[in-house]
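User:
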Amino acid sequence: MNDNVKLALYRFRYAIILLAVVLGLTLATPKFFSSNNFLNILWAVSIVGIISMGATFVILVGRIDLSVGQTAALSGITAALLIKGGTPIPAAIAAACCVGAAVGIVNGLLVIQFHVSEFITTLATGSIITGIAQMISKGKTISIMESKAYIFLGSGKIADIPIPIFCFLLSFLIAFFILNYMVLGRKCYAVGGNARAARVSNINVKRVVVFAYVLSGIAAAFGGIILSALNQQASASTASGYELDVIAAIVIGGASMSGGVGTIPGTVFGVVLIGLINNGLNLLSVPGTWHPVVKGVIILAAVAFNNYSIRFMKSQKVEKKAAGAV
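Assistant: Predicted structure:
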């Protein structure tokens, strides 16, 4: 395989993997390839996608956030309770997002200021958040079926496209802009790549890490709001386990758990790939016991191909530097 082919594989690796999966599932079941099914896939992954947009920043700075699922649940309950109490929907949504931001600040300060392991920190705060959610909801499921305008956020459509997909797109655009066109976004790469070098470069590492956790908290809150609107109810167990899908999507998209490597489009790729696999397995009526096996094999193949293309690109850069030095 010549270098030009390898370079093409690197540049179009996400498209190649997605096309391969789509082609395989289309050949396996004719029901798969349809505009309605693709919309259903995007609709199904929109919540995880929204949360992943913020969590990507935490991974980029070399940390992890295991509390996003619980934050989404608490934010959904907050919005639901406020709406049932007569609070205008925009104010309720803003308050719920503030809850997510507050969780992010607490997580960030515990990790960077008090030097508590991010794994322990977010695991503990997730447990605390679940307890708070159970207390304010009194352990009950809060129905919000009477608020048609709020429910529209989860089940409404514009031009036959579900609203959650537009929310996912909005989250993507905001995250992409912050990471690629704002100084704070570039600082996330610097801190994740080498925190010590970032400090020497007068980058406030503590502020950047807290900023990443705040973004993760707000994205989780927004995802929880849309999820509660979609379910027409909110409870403390809502979004349970979402953190695992979020982390998987980010890593599948090429992000490094050690920080400094990753992109927003890559995360979107990971989210969509997981959605395609889940949808395909359901259409093929694959027994539930086989889902983890098939999904794991496809994900490993996708990550291996992605890592291979990245290693090739790095080797090309090294060779060019060596040639330039000569």
